[in-house]
Specification:
59% helix, Four Helix Bundle (Hemerythrin (Met), subunit A), mainly alpha, single chain, disordered N terminus, 4 helices
């Protein structure tokens, strides 16, 4: 986006909230990996469509978590990728891998 400030390289990666963000992201990743392992380890038929959908949803969240770790590293974590405004801290606590503020998420989902 032209006119948008470029993320500050490394400046957020060393900030006070970054450690907490990494911890939350790591916890989210660990939880999703456990979910995926549980889905893969069930006795249900491997061709069960519901299990396949659930596993794919978990894989998508894992990708979002990896992307959030990349945003931490490049200094853009905590900024909405839609409007570049800060994402509310409460939202990041609940969904540490979110890319959007509430307003942009509504537009992206709708």
């Amino acid at each position: 986006m032209s006119g948008s400030p470029e993320p500050r390289k490394g400046s957020r990666a060393a900030g006070p909230g970054v450690h907490e963000a990494r911890l939350r992201l790591d916890h989210a990743r660990t939880s999703r990996l456990a979910q995926l392992h549980a889905l893969d380890g069930t006795d249900r038929d491997a061709a069960d469509p519901l299990m396949a959908v659930q596993a794919e949803a978990v894989r998508r969240v894992l990708t979002e978590i990896d992307e959030a770790f990349a945003r931490v590293e490049d200094g853009s974590y905590g900024r909405c990728v839609g409007c570049a405004k800060p994402v509310a801290a409460e939202r990041l606590e609940i969904l540490p891998y979110t890319r959007y503020c509430v307003t942009c998420q509504r537009h992206a989902a709708g």
